[in-house]
Amino acid sequence: MSYVVAFSNQAIEEAKRQKAKKVLSITVSVGKMTGVLPEYLYKYYPEAVSGTILEDSELIVEEIPVKAVCESCGREYAPDKEHKYLCPYCGDGRGRVIAGRDVVLERIEIEGDPM
Q1: Which residues pair with 58 in a beta bridge?
Q2: DSSP states of the chain as a string?
Q3: CB within 8 A of 53, min separation 6: which ones?
Q4: What is the rounded distance in angstroms from the CA atom of residue 32 to the CA atom of residue 78?
Q5: What does the alpha-carbon distance between residue 21 and residue 49 come to, in Å, rounded to a whole number?
Q6: Whether pTM exceeds 0.90
Q7: pLDDT digit string (tens) for 6-47?
Q8: What is the pLDDT of residues 40-58, one digit of tens each?
Q9: Are 44 and 4 in contact (CB under 8 A)?
Q10: What span, in angstroms and rounded, lies between the C-alpha atoms of 22 and 113?
Q11: By the 8 A CB rule, do 22 and 53 touch?
């Protein structure tokens, strides 16, 4: 619920900044490494935005896969169990995660012309 409240508040502030009359949708990216399950975001979103400019807006969740770059060979890869989360190209275990560990408000679609 804390993630829903956080990105909803961001969207409300952006809608106010743009002087929106109504918000049609918001898009949130959720990294697979966060442990945040999209079904819970969808479940709690209506309650979190009730009585706000976001009420009746659509929540769109885009899942972002985990991506790492190998500190040894420099290649990008998707860590997985099959390779024991090691670089599949050189076998090194020093990977730096570069995607998939954030929850980010990506877009807000508004109705009406800004005043």
Answers
A1: 25
A2: -HHHHHHHHHHHHHHHHTT-SEEEEEEEEEEGGG---HHHHHHHHHHHHTTSTTTTPEEEEEEE--EEEETTT--EE---GGGTTS-TTT--S-EEEEESS-EEEEEEEEES---
A3: 12, 15, 16, 20, 22, 23
A4: 11
A5: 15
A6: no
A7: 999 999 999 999 999 899 999 999 999 999 999 999 999 999
A8: 999 999 999 999 999 999 9
A9: yes
A10: 10
A11: yes
Two tokens at 108? Answer: 């807000």
Pairing of the two strands 58-64 and 22-31: parallel
Which residue type, as a one-letter code, is found at position 45? Y
Q: Fill in the amino acid letter for 103.
A: V
* Residue that the structure tokens 């743009």 belong to: 18
Q: What are phi and psi of 3, to 5 degrees?
A: -65, -40
